[in-house]
């Protein structure tokens, strides 16, 4: 993931470990979401309970990574570009933990819906939206792993599609309720599942924004796409420049890291 190596091997090792821990936590969060959806669709109480219990591992990983980042910053005092990456990991951890929380909500709704019995309403909408959201999360984590600003920008654009599909699904469910009020309780639970999926998409977008930030140096939160596209181009230019002409130690600003 890192494009330049530092005069401090320990710094590289600490940073690589932070990246590894982040991506492992990301994989676990994505697995929670997938299992929660399967539990819902298949009415699998056992799998739903597994998702709920997995939340302990996600929370533990959050604490472990927070401690690692704190020690890294205190001991190594990273230069500006590396500090952006470290802070992006720190912020992204919050999004991953909340993705885990949303997966737990879905799992709990899966248990409720299984207890209420089979309903034909809303499952197609959940399946469709979950496919979109899980792809967003996968691509956001991959963009982070590969330092790919273009892929991160695509995740941001896909969030608009997810929001539109979420609103469309909600309208369809409201129509179901008007047609048959006996299914209000079941449909409301499905609405909460859809809401959790929409929030997972938002967290995936946040991670994508962090990718663009640590590569380009621009905070693209709450920015229009023209500004994001400019930041992505600058990110690509920086990567191309580094590949064409490797920076000297002095130019790369790495002298703040002491050699071990």
From TrEMBL:
The keyword Transport applies. Pfam families: PhoU. Residues 25-109, 127-211 form the PhoU domain. Keywords: Phosphate transport, Transport. InterPro entries: PhoU (IPR028366), PhoU-like_sf (IPR038078), PhoU_dom (IPR026022). Signal peptide: none annotated. The keyword Transport applies. It comes from the Bacteria. Belongs to the PhoU family. PANTHER family: PHOSPHATE-SPECIFIC TRANSPORT SYSTEM ACCESSORY PROTEIN PHOU. NCBIfam families: phoU_full (TIGR02135). This is Phosphate signaling complex protein PhoU. The gene is phoU.
